[in-house]
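Hey everyone, long-time lurker, first post.

I ran two proteins through the pipeline my lab uses and got sequence/structure pairs for each. Pasting them in order. The first:
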Amino acid sequence: MRLLAAPLLTAVLALSLAAEDSTKTKTKTNTVDPVTGEQVKTKTRVKSDADGDYKVDGKTQVKSDSGNTKSSVKIRGEADGDYKEKVKTSGPEGKTETKTKIDK
């Protein structure tokens, strides 16, 4: 879950700061955990429109002694309540993919 925290936090912050027109935000972070030595790279793109629609695309890569993990998150939301989320993760434990869709 720690892998997903950065892109989702960026999305929430970008949506709360949305202006009258559409806004686009790109974020890149490279961090190293001083205790475990894990290197975490995160790239996030957020686009929000004036009508309340938004898109979030995020990628996270973790390099550690126990193996590398990659995950990607795609979120689409609309003002009328429709919501789509797709999360792909691959690592030493294998690959997982989850999809969430809400239509209102």
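...and the second, right after it:
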Amino acid sequence: MKGTPTVLGHIVGNADMLAIRFRDTLKNRRYDLQLWIEDSGCLVCANPRMPAARRIANNEPERIVGTYTAAIKASEIAEDITAARIEYGQRQVMEYSA
């Protein structure tokens, strides 16, 4: 993951499977990873210092699911993904209802 974010899957996918995939990606890194939802609904992760991650943090922090270290459990990530899915859905409904 040098220079480009990693796409993990779509927010409506199985939260447990997405969390396991993210956890596997995270455990091979020597740095934290930021997880966020793109406009398309894709879950994406990157080093928080990368330009794409900084852009999200600075301009659209509501899209960030979290920033994680290798010590996190997949079950905790799955809980965050589930909560983010609900928030993402609510934002989409509000945006398209306006």
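Reply from user beta_strand_b:
Welcome! Quick read of the second one: The mean pLDDT is 92. The CA atoms of residues 56 and 62 lie 9 Å apart.
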